[in-house]
Every structure is written in structure tokens, then in C-alpha cells.
Amino acid sequence: MTERLAVVALALLTLLSLALAPWAALNRETGARSAVMLLPNRIIDFTTRTTPVEAPGQGVVLLLSVLGVATIVGAGALRDRPRQVLWLGAGATLLVTTAWGLAGFASAVDAQRVLSVRDDVRAAVERPRPAFDVDVLQAIVDDPADLSIEETVARAREGGLIIRRLPYTGAGMGLAAFLTIVTGLFAIVAGARMVRAVNRPLDRALATMAIPAVSIVLALAAAAVVILVMQPTPRASAFEFEGPLIALAGRLDTLWLAYYTMFAESLGTAKGFADALSFATPLIFTGLAVGFGFRAGLFNIGAPGQMVLGAIATMFVGLYMPGPTWLVLPVAVAAAALGGGLWGALPGWLKARFGANEVINTILLNFVAASLLLFMLSSSPTFAAPAVRVIQLIGVVVGVMIVALLVPWLRRQLGRGPRVVLALVGVGVLVGAVFVSQPRPGDAPYVLQLPFKVPGSEPKSYELQETARLPRLPAVFGIDLRQTPGTNIKPVDVALPAALLFGVAALVVANRLRRPAAARARLGVAAGSALVAYGALAALGWRALPVAIPPSNLNPSFVIAIAAAVFVHYFLFRTRFGYELRASGLSPKAAEYGGANLRRNTVMAMAISGALAGLTATHYVLGGALEDYALRQSIPTGDGFDGIAVALLGGNSPVGIVLAAFLFGVLKNGGSLLNITFSNLTRDVVSMILALVVLFIAAKGFLPERLTNPLRRAKALGDLPPEVGDGKPERPPDDAPGGPPGQTPTGAKEERG
Prior knowledge:
The protein is mainly α. It has 28 helices and 8 strands. It has 4 domains: 2-194; 270-378 and 554-678, no CATH class; 382-447, no CATH class; 488-549, no CATH class. The chain is 64% helix and 4% strand. Helix 11 (325-354) packs across helix 12 (358-376). The radius of gyration is 32 Å and the shape is globular.
């Protein structure tokens, strides 16, 4: 019933958009001023200088679209089989009609664009300049052939005329066309239920995606209100609104263009896609870190500090470790994980040993890590002599404690009263600090010269040696941007990664068979499938496919992030220790009764979580994502907090975290373009959307309990027998023993002596 209401509601919204919202855009100018078209061929020119274009067949598009949407709405009242058949047909009609209409619109715009360029060429012929080749330009005017816009511009350039800005820039679909496509897709998916084999996988997919998808939609809807309040409709000063419908169309187009700006660059261009992956890479690491902690019943909010310690550790290896690349680079990656892991293990040990809350400890350690980074990258830090003596005292005490813990007899004695021992040590350090901090004759300030800090006031380290660097995307393909700047076209062996993905898909399918074969047989099937796919793709010429390689900070740390996600999935769901961690997170008492070591699990879970967060250094330091291959104070530790939202949106599963991180990467990359396109919008809109996503996920998307309760959902899917409870305590009936106090099993009042 919920699915039917959702499809019908979406269809009604689409029906309204066909009447009120722009179906396509003719022109997008600087400042987001646009000329848009509503069906059928109703032009609203907010630029006041765009020549109207009449696309053929738009009346037919409107008629078929309205019929298709009305069919979806009407079929919602029918029984399953007729409704599904009608939804399939109506959905296919909407997709085909919209695609045909957009193709005709694009052809009409291209033809008008060529005519506009020819008018410019004709004007150049009538008023020639010395740099113009009039014969070449006149040939363009006289040529009866239907030249494409690219050919026309190229021939004009040969004649000395440079077309600096093409007319009808940014022409494309509008809000109404987009909603029509979405409605058609939803109708086809819902209508596919007429095939019984589709029902169970579709139910599982919808149950898994319900909360994240609804949360994203609600966040975008709430952000839409803010966008409409902050940004007025961009228009030329000479444009005047002639009625409320035109004003409404302008507001809807402004909202559509804002969201289109956020997503189109990342999903429609090679550079935008690479930049979105670059933004997503650290979010994968931090999302995995937070999600891993959640699985173990721990809330690791210390990813920012673990990022810093991982970056510091990998910086030391990258600067000072000698050796070839094959040795230094893996050690630098391991150092990033080790630095973050040790910083994460500290609050884990405090929780396991003393019961200290990991949330408070990790928050406080974030400030400690930030202060440590500030100290290490500050210019010539100066200490007073008493402060140096206090630091020396603390170092001596820590050294003595480490030695004492290494002696078994002392360790046993100290372990009998750890809180008392720590309290006595703390009091002793404070008393000692009072004495050693007293001024003495001859005290002089101590200026610390850090060897890894670059001279001057810039807060950064020296650049890493060449053997510790992960190449950026162009360098991976042997492109030197100093010689060939911009996007380069290179032949790339696309068949190999595609075949590997095909092999992985074959392995997943083999694992999900009702009677899975032996491990060797499954691996053999996967390898054979990959080889067959590689041979077929190689025969199609995919071994040297021309690919656009844009300048981007994307680097192989993205591959490390995907490998980390695979490791987390295998560790949590395919190993005994991973099962023990998940059991400890779900029910610590039951896990301990079953033999789990809760203290060890707590420390190990926080250490692994911290190691995943520390691996962000492979992107920012080893990968040179911060301008150069150096540790900078500007390392964006906010990614650690964004990882919480990524983990929540991804449902704490590695696959979901990777997808959620990519979505956040798309939004972050698109947010940087908002301020360029709109005068009143900034990337803070994206931050607001991310915060709203977390808010709505915490509220479970305001969905009914039958969709959010795992036990009730599992019973609905048939994974649990009906007699299993839903996890909620049930109130005993009044006539049951132990019913409401003061009543006997028959309901009479109990006599008290």
C-alpha cells in the first residue's frame, strides 16, 4: 500500500509540473538568467534577449505525457495484476515520449544555434576586418549544407572569426521533464512485480533503501525552502512578471537549476566525476571508521584526531625513510594506519580498563591532536625554561610507568588498584611540577627548531620524497600537465577493469546460489568469466579506448579506500572475530556469556576504527590532495565528522558507506559551483543538506515502524517465522497471572490482610 501511494503521489506531482514547471531550458546565461520552455512551446525569456525556438512535436509530448501520468494515477485504484500491467505500459510510454521530445528539442536548439552563428558570420562579411578571410566566411554563408555547430565554428575560425561564446548555452531538460522520467522509472519498477521472481529482491532492496532514500528526499525538500527564500529569480532588469504563473515558473526553474548545478557537473563531465571521487575518498575512510565502531557498539567520534595522527606518522616516513618506492610507499601507508590506530586504541583502552565513555574521550583527544599539529607546524616554537623542566618531568614519569608495566610482579601489584595508582601519580606529577617550575638563575628561553618544518610562517612540512608519493590521476597515465595542461585524451585499457568487475559480479552470483559450489570452483568460475569478458571486450577494441583524463587531485588512495571497504566487509561478516565484534555490539552481556572478551574487543575495535580514519593521510599527504605533497595545518579534519553522516546514511555497511560517500562527494563538488552560478547561494547549502540528512536518518525518515523495525521487516520478508516477536515488550492481559496489581486472575480486587 505504501508503494502504491508513493507512485501515485509522484505521478500527481508530475502532472502539476507538466502544467506549471519549465519542461526544458533554451539558454542559461551568466548570473543564472534563463530562457525556459513550458509545454507546449510556451517560452518565458528571463534574459529578454534570447530568440525563441519552436521545437516540433511538443504538443504530442504533452498529450502523451498527461495520458501516461493519468494512467498511472488511475491504475492505483485497480488490483495488482491490471495495475502492474498498466504501470509498465505507462512508464515505458513516459520514458520514450520524454526521450523523443528532448531529442527534438535539442535538434531545434542546435539548428537555431547554427543560424545564430551564421548571422554572426554574415555580419562579419558585411563589416570585414583585416584579420578576416572574407572568401572563407562567405563560403560559410553560401553553403547550403546543414553543417553542425562544431563544423560551423571551426570553419569560422579558419576565416579568422573567433566565436567566443556560443548562443543557447546550457540548453537541456527542465524540472517537468526530469519528474516525468523519474515517474516512468518508478512505474516500471513497481509494475515489474507482475514477475514473481522480482518481488523478493525488490522488497529487500526497498526495505534496505527506505530510510536513507526518504531521508535524502526530505533533506532536499527542506533545503529547497531555504534556497527559494535566499535566492530570488535571476532575471534581466528589463523583465517584468506578467502574472503569478510566470513567477511560479521562475521560482521552480531557480530551484531546479540550483540542484542541477550540484549534480550535473559531477555526473556529467569527466573532471567533475573525478573531483567527486576525490572528495569521496576521505569520506570512505572516515565513514568506514565510524561504521566499524558502530558495529562493535562503540561511537568513535574521534576520527578528526585519528586523521591528524595518521598524517603525522606518514609524514615522518615520507620524509626520512630511505629506500625504493616499492618499500617506502607501503610503509608510509602502514604508518598512516598505525598512527590513527594507536590514537584510537587509547580511548578504547580507557573504556575497557576504567569504563570511561569513549565519546567524551575521543572528543577531547581531537583537541589534543589539533594542538599537537599546531605545535609541530608553528614557526620556531619557544618554551620558557620552567616549562621545559615540567615536560622533562612528565617524560621521566611516563618512562618509569612503562618500565613498571613491563615487570610482571609490578604490573600485578599496580593492577590491584589502578585508579588509586593513577591518582597518586597525578598528584605526584602536580607537586613535582610546582617545584621544578620555580624560576632559577640563568634560565633562558628555549627555541625549538623542528627539522621537518619549512622555514617561514607557512604552517606546512617539507614535501615528501619522490618514493613516498601517490601519483595524481594525470600522472597515473603518464601525462605531464606542465607540457599539456587541461584535459588530455589517452588510449586506456578499459577492458581490464571491466573484466575484473565482471569476475567479481560472477563470484557474488556464485556465492548466492542455493547450492554454492566449493571455493575453488567458485573462484574458477569467476576467473573464467573475467577472462571471457576480457576477450570479448578486447575484440570490441576496449583495450585502447580513447578516454578523457582531466586534471584532478584524484589519486590511487581511492583504490586503497575501496580495498579498505572490502577488508571491513570480509572482516565483519566472514571471520570469527568479526562475528564476535558484532555480537559484542548488539548484546555485550550475551556475547560475554558466550565467551567473548569484551575488553579486548573494545580496544581492538577502536584501534581498527582509528586505523581506517588514519588512512585518510594516503589521500591528503601521500596523494598530494592539499596543493602539494606535504603535511599542512589546513588538513580538513571536518571529514571526520562528515564520516558520521556517511556511516548513518550507508547503514554502517561497507557497500552503503561507499555509495553514501560518493553522494556526499558529488554534493561537496557541486556546492563549490553554487556561488559561481548564483549570487546568494554558497557551499553552506551543501553543509545544511548533509546536516538535514543526519537529522532525518535519526528520525528514521518518519516512516512507520513496520518499515523501520528490523524484526517486523524480516517477518514481512519471510526471513523469520510469524511467531517471533518484534522486539517490543508486550503488556500481559488483565486475566493473566501477574497482570495489573491489585487484581486477581479473574479481575476481582485482591483482598489484603
